[in-house]
Amino acid sequence: MDLIFEIGSEGRKLSLLPKCDVPEVKVPESQSRKTALHLPHVSENELSRHYSKLAKRSHGVNDGFYPLGSCTMKYNPKVNEIAASFKGFTGVHPLQNERTVQGSMEVIKKTEDTLCEIAGMDAFTLQPAAGAHGEFTGLLLIKAYHVDRGDTKRTKIIVPDSAHGTNPASAAMCGFDVVSIPSQDDGCVDLDALRGAVGDDTAGLMLTNPNTVGLFDKNILQITKIVHDAGGLCYYDGANLNAVMGIARPGDMGFDAVHINLHKTFSTPHGGGGPGAGPVGCKEFLKQFLPGHHVAGDENEGFRYEIETKSIGAVKMFHGNFLVIVRALTYMLMLGKEGVPEASSNAVLNANYMRTKLDDLYEMAYDTTCMHEFVMSLEPLKHKTGVSALDVAKGLLDYGIHPPTMYFPLIVEEALMIEPTETEPKEVLDEAIVALRALYKEATDNPEALHSAPHNTVIGRPDEVGAARNTVLRYQWTD
Amino acid sequence: MDLIFEIGSEGRKLSLLPKCDVPEVKVPESQSRKTALHLPHVSENELSRHYSKLAKRSHGVNDGFYPLGSCTMKYNPKVNEIAASFKGFTGVHPLQNERTVQGSMEVIKKTEDTLCEIAGMDAFTLQPAAGAHGEFTGLLLIKAYHVDRGDTKRTKIIVPDSAHGTNPASAAMCGFDVVSIPSQDDGCVDLDALRGAVGDDTAGLMLTNPNTVGLFDKNILQITKIVHDAGGLCYYDGANLNAVMGIARPGDMGFDAVHINLHKTFSTPHGGGGPGAGPVGCKEFLKQFLPGHHVAGDENEGFRYEIETKSIGAVKMFHGNFLVIVRALTYMLMLGKEGVPEASSNAVLNANYMRTKLDDLYEMAYDTTCMHEFVMSLEPLKHKTGVSALDVAKGLLDYGIHPPTMYFPLIVEEALMIEPTETEPKEVLDEAIVALRALYKEATDNPEALHSAPHNTVIGRPDEVGAARNTVLRYQWTD
Amino acid sequence: MGSFVPNTDREQEEMLKEAGYKSFDDMFSCIPDEVRLKRPLNLPSGLSEMEAIREMEEISEKNVTFKHIFRGAGAYNHYIPAIVKSVTAKEEFVTTYTPYQAEISQGVLQSIFEYQTMMCELTGMDVANASHYDGATAAAESIPMCKDRKHKVAYVSSTVHPGTIQVMETYCFGSNTKLVQVPSKDGVTDMDKLAKMLKDDPEAACLVMQQPNFYGIYEDATKLGEIVHEAGAKFVMSVNPIALSVMKTPAECGADVAVGDGQPLGMPIAYGGPYLGFMAAPKSMMRKLPGRIVGETTDDKGNRAYVLTLQAREQHIRREKASSNICSNQALCALTASVYMAAMGADGMKEAATQSTSKAHYLMDALKKAGLKPMFSGEFFNEFITDCPCGSDKLLDALAEKGILGGLPLTENVVLWCTTEMNTKEEMDQVASIVAALISGKEA
Amino acid sequence: MGSFVPNTDREQEEMLKEAGYKSFDDMFSCIPDEVRLKRPLNLPSGLSEMEAIREMEEISEKNVTFKHIFRGAGAYNHYIPAIVKSVTAKEEFVTTYTPYQAEISQGVLQSIFEYQTMMCELTGMDVANASHYDGATAAAESIPMCKDRKHKVAYVSSTVHPGTIQVMETYCFGSNTKLVQVPSKDGVTDMDKLAKMLKDDPEAACLVMQQPNFYGIYEDATKLGEIVHEAGAKFVMSVNPIALSVMKTPAECGADVAVGDGQPLGMPIAYGGPYLGFMAAPKSMMRKLPGRIVGETTDDKGNRAYVLTLQAREQHIRREKASSNICSNQALCALTASVYMAAMGADGMKEAATQSTSKAHYLMDALKKAGLKPMFSGEFFNEFITDCPCGSDKLLDALAEKGILGGLPLTENVVLWCTTEMNTKEEMDQVASIVAALISGKEA
């Protein structure tokens, strides 16, 4: 379809602004723009239709099953959107004085308190805007802790080889060296390798539990103890928290800091890539390093801002992705004490249900109870038929199903990582099971068809190599 | 796709209402329901996806060209929706006292005043909910007028044979006998026939001008004079007002009463069939018969309700489709003095542009300047190729274009009536012209393909005869 | 000025030229000079979007919106689930028109078919149409369905909403139908008088009654139906759709037509509209049902498909004899009702109904204790009438000061109260204490 | 309690059984008992939707929203066209994630490609990424792009927004980067000092400056760029996207990286987020650009198609050496900005910019007449600083009483004012008269 620059015509426009009611002042000549500015010139009708077309060429959770492993694509309740649209939230300036933003501060306080209870932490900051941003923030806390104690030789962060790609990247951004430790055959941390890796240069460990292969590491208490005994801190990557809310808490597993993805676990929409929110929680001894304004007080005495004594500063301007937080709090209020563990229980149930309905055909990377997601290895299928994980993923597109995460974690060959979430009804799981079984059969009977899948989408497989080689990253006007 | 009754399962639900905080009281046994109540049992996710699917199987103005003649499918500005969503409008009870609904009353007053000026009328009621409802209301005014004067023998309403189908039906609902008069070859009222039809039993004439073949009746002043001379009144069907706003006014043409379709001329959305609004205007001498509460006063002195002395009563509970009126007023405020005639000028221009780009190929029912719409007769094409107006209309579906109105007006054989509206850019008209020309060629080259069109829609041609014969009008549960 | 015309002046010039005109004036030369408007419209200059939205917002703020609402009488403040607005704002539904072209309108058609099904379920009837303008016009349009050559006189109980009666009167003025009001006794239809009136009138075509009636009281609908049918007339019930989830259905009461206003099913009170008229009937009345109806059929490949059907009944055929002219209806409101009912489910609907009546009973008890007296003793659903010895206006003003919209003042000393699941115990206690203070002469 | 789990208890039982578990407890037996939470969460019981929405609404009403806003400092109250909300609320955009699967994500991908193009146009640059968290983090992330083995020290002008500087400091703490502030003189970067500092520092990697700067004043960016480039460092400009429509572009000023906050492009002020960080650069910096980037390519049939590209730069390859970890971004905000820019068009953007600066000048004149003195004489865009002899708090309280959010108090006696096209002459006159009354000691 056309780009928005290819429709409309010069002079078309919307009628948005009134005439200026004061004398016109121009930018001084020395400061004024010389380059022509090309922007779309369309009427509202054309604009509206353009984006309607784009919307039809997109697939959201609302359009069907979206079992993208490690992304927790759960249903986004509409009530969240209503809460986030209240004028009282959208219409306040971030730099208003405390007296006039008691509502926003209450939102922050309530969200922090709820997250503390769920994660088993003592304090939270809502400033980080995304999961990776939370990792960065959490590691800065760890860094600040060691620096504050004058323990400057702790320069290494231990990361299992199954980790999310952002973990080592976050560590690198914090100036740490990354020590990668291998996983055992069962996908869990190799305790001996960990013992061998820790030392007086250990700043900390980054881990997610359940881990990225979907298993709960049974040695978790030993793991965190090994790190603590060596003087390091333990950071919990909350990407997989949806499996264990109300069942087990990072704080109780021995973690010192944690980030949580509100856009995964707490149902705020993913927005095509963001905005999310990656609040960071910590134990009491790390609280003094938290960034940004901390909200203290309560409803009765009023809320006030406080800045931690040894704050790392700020990881973002203002108070985080506030409207995302509003959505998450709305969800938390609805779930409450009973609903939070119910969500996790069913996330895990849905994953195990799918796993056991597929494990006779597909090879499971780890053939045991999984948490909220599970990983299949398509290596045997590929060996037999030449059909890869990518081919099966593309085949799913023709069933109207968003493919699972492909080729992650890196320690599983031809990985497909499936996370159904708790908001999918049994029938949707059954349909996906039927589709995956059919694709297995098709891989055996007619592998060629799968190599060229998908067949029913608005485009076929794109040339990604060409895109990276011959980069076209913007539309160019010819005039 | 599945009906909503065919998805979900018993016991699934949303979490909407709190527990009751007062002692429960049941409906008395003698009054209580015995029949099982079947309603959908779905989660919010399933519900949301169901309607997303339905939406994708629907085509609105926002999805593409919609030149449905006589329906004025113009673009629906988003600003209208924002105005209609203000809590101050949605949250007031219709039976609040005047003091507390000054805003709503101002909306009504401003809308009435604007419509008076555009239509050349002296008063308006906003109570009617649709065009046909307006016709009914307008005819009741005429009836009340004659009755009030004791002129009870005036029982006939004259309607040209080109009229909208609702005209005679409305007349019948008002207890009038309908006298149909033929049109001339040029599509206009046959003056001699009219002279022959009027008499002391004439209650009035119903007419739209521009008429339903898209032409402005050049004899309009003679027409209304003939009726008036005979003691009848003239009613203006405002369905085609979009052609002449600010150019010519029904009041100046000699009409005594008029209805206006806010959902056509004033850009409020059609909503899949409604709600619309069909305000009725009249000259001063009919004002005393208007239904409902009339809003008097102004911003300074305050607004107040008044009831007309000889009011016909009410044609609807409360104050009309109020939120539709809010949308229309927003649009009127934006267009203003200059924008209103600009809209009509371009509606007429777009129609004539399309007409002149097609008239070498397609036979125009009336080969002269049209107003905001024009009628083609596919009779010659059908004679030559066997391809009917219906076939061409169905062929357009495969181009993503909503077909024109088919087989109306009744006086043109194999009619297709095209109304592009002013909100379509030239390119959209050009694309439709190309499509219609291609269909003409296809009709000649490969008529069979068109007999079975459309080919790219979610269903093919439905069996309408079967639907009417073997009526299935609801889903039936088997339990 | 604001404009939604995309084509630029230059493009308009070109198009004029291509269409063979020198100018817009030239194009409009087909309009006789005598009727051309020779002056600009006497309207304000057009506004930008920013100005228009500001003006509309300012106007909206001149209304007073109440946090707590105890007024019903045809407009009920029920909870509207978040999903309802989200679905009904979808532009594919909002910007389309009547689904004349079934191939690209299956979504709208199926949604109407589902709506019809749900209305049939609620009322217990076999067929429902795609909507009327509101409950009052639906009631008015039921009369012609019941009339025939021998049966020409319509009856309506005086316990029907006065607004409904007024609309019926206006419609009857149109169709030259005699409309007779049946008196009430103790807040319900006087059955003895009704029986006598019908017995004396061989031309009686129908009785229209309301359940629960305007005063909130349950009528003995089954008995009324029997009386009406004995007289050879049709029995029309105007019903509250929320109440239907727990109450005897019109079908169970033997009704020939069920009508009502669907506003409680997810529509905001919004100063009275748009609301939703609904109408349902037994199969025997199918071909008399006015308005649009969607039917199931198959397409040319045998797939299930939906189409507008039974269109031959009105303005299309024998239009000059039509008994209804309805064309545009309240489709988006019907969609709203469908989404509402699907979101609530049968259990949710029953819960809303039960809470509404439970709270009405709690409020009445509280008001009684505060010193008001109920006017009738009949069992009621979610509305009831009390006296108001301190004066309706004074009471309502006192409530308004606290952000509460009290009941509807029927007279200077009589108020019609209403509750829904939206009213909390706390706010009802507050109402009662304000009332008690007024009655005892002290400020609350 | 509220729940979004569709499966009923019975269905859950069945599924447990089919998956081979006796119970949820059994399923969770893989979690060591020592870390199982043995008590219910200490949270309130879950609420129904109706209660939750009421609670959130009540909380929102505890905030004070001002009708007239004269505060900017990183959050600007520009007009948001109606179409913006309507488009960005489309659930296909809202509920999807990063477009990993191009075949079913062409809509999102194309929208990002269009966004990149518009940001390139605004900044004059060749490439732009798909978004950062906000302007401050974009500024912070520009530093690693400029660093190499020899150039390790970052400079930032002290006229940059203090919030931005703070975020840069925090990021630099992480990456062990020395960050040096360049002093200001007369409200702009002190060029002489800058030149000297850079000359003395062979390790200088970059200067980050803001245009217009935190005080609203135009810097001589071209000159600054020359000084920076002479020292062999990179020149990073943090810019206001509305101003860019009429101001010298970063490209024209010779910038190596342009960053900024896109909030003015259609996002509400919303207590600070979500906003939009943007970043653009010349082609030479392309492979250093962090974050996601969409490129044009073709599909297997030769059709135009869009994909995520250049993904090899960060966490995917050599992730332990990554200089950025950005993954989730602010995609929906980028879409918002695109729709805003498409709605405004170049002319509309210029109009917003010109009105914003025109009104700032009108307000400054009015405040001068009322008795306030500007702190600096430099030309300004839509923000400026005055003294406040009567005390900032007193002045702001007086304005707040009239529903006006005054400028940002920088100290007890200094205020940073801001205007946009949303401020009318009338409200500015009102501000001036309140100020005048306070200064003269009389109440307004």
Automatic annotation (TrEMBL), chains A, B:
Ranges where the Glycine dehydrogenase C-terminal domain occurs: 343-450
Record's catalysed reaction(s): N(6)-[(R)-lipoyl]-L-lysyl-[glycine-cleavage complex H protein] + glycine + H(+) = N(6)-[(R)-S(8)-aminomethyldihydrolipoyl]-L-lysyl-[glycine-cleavage complex H protein] + CO2
MF (Gene Ontology): glycine binding; glycine dehydrogenase (decarboxylating) activity; pyridoxal phosphate binding
Cofactor(s) the record lists: pyridoxal 5'-phosphate
Matches recorded under InterPro entries: Aminotrans_V_dom, GcvPB, GDC-P_C, GDC_P, PyrdxlP-dep_Trfase, PyrdxlP-dep_Trfase_major, PyrdxlP-dep_Trfase_small
Xref: Pfam families: Aminotran_5, GcvP2_C
Positions where N6-(pyridoxal phosphate)lysine occurs in the chain: K264
Keywords linked to the UniProt accession: Oxidoreductase, Pyridoxal phosphate
Domain named Aminotransferase class V: residues: 153-271
EC number, as in UniProt: 1.4.4.2
Major enzyme class: oxidoreductase
One GO CC annotation: glycine cleavage complex
GO biological process: glycine decarboxylation via glycine cleavage system
Database matches in NCBIfam families: PRK04366.1 (NF003346)
Task performed by this protein: The glycine cleavage system catalyzes the degradation of glycine. The P protein binds the alpha-amino group of glycine through its pyridoxal phosphate cofactor; CO(2) is released and the remaining methylamine moiety is then transferred to the lipoamide cofactor of the H protein.
Family: Belongs to the GcvP family. C-terminal subunit subfamily.
Subunit structure: The glycine cleavage system is composed of four proteins: P, T, L and H. In this organism, the P 'protein' is a heterodimer of two subunits.
Stated name of the protein: Probable glycine dehydrogenase (decarboxylating) subunit 2
Organism: Aminicella lysinilytica
TrEMBL record, chains C, D:
GO terms for biological process, alphabetical: glycine decarboxylation via glycine cleavage system; nucleoside metabolic process
SUPFAM superfamilies in alphabetical order: PLP-dependent transferases (SSF53383)
EC number of this enzyme: 1.4.4.2
GO molecular function, a single term: glycine dehydrogenase (decarboxylating) activity
Sorted UniProt keywords: Oxidoreductase
CDD domains, sorted: GDC-P
Gene3D superfamilies: Aspartate Aminotransferase, domain 1, Type I PLP-dependent aspartate aminotransferase-like (Major domain)
Pfam families attached to this UniProt entry: GDC-P (PF02347)
Superkingdom assignment: Bacteria
Tagged with keyword Transcription regulation: no
Subunit structure: The glycine cleavage system is composed of four proteins: P, T, L and H. In this organism, the P 'protein' is a heterodimer of two subunits.
Family stated for the protein in its record: Belongs to the GcvP family. N-terminal subunit subfamily.
Protein name: Probable glycine dehydrogenase (decarboxylating) subunit 1
Native organism taxonomy: Bacteria, Bacillati, Bacillota, Clostridia, Peptostreptococcales
Annotated gene: gcvPA
